[in-house]
Amino acid sequence: MKSFVYDYGTEDWTKWIKSQGHPTFRSKQIMEWLYSKRVTSFDEMTNLPKTLREELARYFEFETLETITTQTSQDGTVKFLFGLHDKNAIETVIMRHQYGISVCVTTQVGCRIGCTFCASTLGGLKRNLTTGEIVAQVVKAQQHLDQTGERVKSVVIMGSGEPFENYDATIQFVRIINEENGLNIGQRHITVSTSGVVPNIYRFADEDWQVRLAISLHAPNQDLRSRLMPINRRFPLKDLLTACWYYLQKTGRRLTFEYALIGEKNDQDEQAHELGKLLSGMNCLVNLIPVNFVPERNFVRTPKKQIFAFQRILESYHVSTTIRREQGHDIDAACGQLRAKQQGLLEK
After folding, report:
1. Residues 13-25: pLDDT tens digits?
2. Domain 3-61 has CATH 1.10.150.530
């Protein structure tokens, strides 16, 4: 199978170009065609010799993703369902905020983590994505935004799958979109989320960069977290928190904890007090997320009154807290929901 053009950063292109006997400045030209001009074929790379364009076509696959479905919400959120070369499908989301436009990308086809409130895990894990399949999601989103003269400002790696179970491809993805010759998205505008793959939290802390880290927490104690997130049995809460403290001490950067509020499951005052005590003294932000309704999961949302009460209790422990603004409510907003819906249609 050919490599995808988006698998390579400048350094990789330079090595390949040299191996083919071409001058190294061609690597920068290729990157400019891919990321600045965002062409869709090798033939459009008109300042490259025809022989080089033919070699590129021989060794690399250009069309990485095929757009199956595009959903647009009244609030401007756009959700794509992309088809892959092996007939699998993944989701990518464009979100509009006051601070600019962000893109949420997927790192795996499906997910094996098994969080009980998430649609991504329906059907289990099919495979990891390549670096190029992750990069292409941002390129496709930017091509969509090019129609209105807008630009991707930030990227969150919070779509389907567990990024830290596809660590190497995820890290290479971050490096490519951060490159000046790539999409030139600042490191502080990139956030990686993990459900708690402890060994790779240490690896991530040791990376020499300013990329942000978010931890999907969703419960304040071992028993409840294990029921909601089976990964907690493999990497217990106490080990996760030890890794989080290492990250804070090593990087000096604030950590974000994602906490999905599920009615009558993890949203009571008692749990808010427990969470406040657990995180008190940490340089962190808790992002409270009203859970998306997924028919297969049958969980209910926490009432707004209780969401605000939960926030007040956390803040009484001097834990910084935000409530995620709801987006894409009128489309298949939950991670994995559009893909699951499409698979269900195909099965019928």
Report:
1. 999 999 999 999 9
2. yes
**Domain boundaries along the sequence of the chain:** 3-61, 66-347
Cα angle vertex 132, ends 131, 134, to 5°?
70
Work out the average pLDDT over 197-208.
97
Please list, in sequence order, all residues whose beta carbon lies within 8 angstroms of the beta carbon of residue 342, skipping any fewer than 6 positions away: 68, 69, 81, 89
Q: What is the mean pLDDT of residues 278-286?
A: 98
Same fold, 3-61 and 66-347: no
Positions at the binding site: 111, 115, 118, 161-162, 193, 216-218, 292
Report yes or no on whether pTM surpasses 0.90. Answer: yes
**% helix, strand, coil for the chain, step of 5:** 40, 20, 40
Q: Domain spanning 66-347 has what CATH number?
A: 3.20.20.70
91, 133, 165, 258: which is the annotated catalytic residue?
91
91 in active site = yes
Distance, C-alpha 192 to centroid of its chain: 6
Residue 61 a catalytic site member: no
Binding residues for [4Fe-4S] cluster: 111, 115, 118
Binding residues for S-adenosyl-L-methionine, by number, are: 161-162, 193, 216-218, 292
Reported as a single tens digit per residue, the pLDDT across 142-156 is: 999 999 999 999 999
